[in-house]
Amino acid sequence: METSQSNEPCTSPLSAPPSGTGDGGCDLVTVPARQGLEAVDILRRGAVDAVGPVLHDDGCDTLGFLVPAGTAACWDVPGSVCTETHGRGLRLTPEPPVEGSDWLLPPGEADLATDPVVLRRALGEAARLIEAADSCR
Prior knowledge:
Blueprint lengths: L25 E7 H13 L8 E4 L4 E7 L12 E4 L16 E5 L10 H20 L2
Antiparallel strand pairs: 1-3, 1-4, 2-3, 2-5
């Protein structure tokens, strides 16, 4: 599993208010479930609970982190994909926005969106932990 060596995105969308996060204007970072679960643990153990809503698919193959709109324009973390949603069907409601998915961390129990800079670091740490665990086998 590889991660980007850069810890700095080109421009953080959080420099502006996370407009639209309450109205569905979020992007979605999708990662393999194992790395995503590690990242959720890392984010929840941090000094500040910095994780927003997280989706998982029914096959438990991937996790999706809601991040502020505009994140996809700069996202370059290998092994993950950031999709612009432009509000197309992605609403922060108790019901999962995508058929075949469910909330791991539902809206209302988490921040509005995960800070992409913090998520990038957590995904990198998760990848290193997984690589270390796998090399011990």
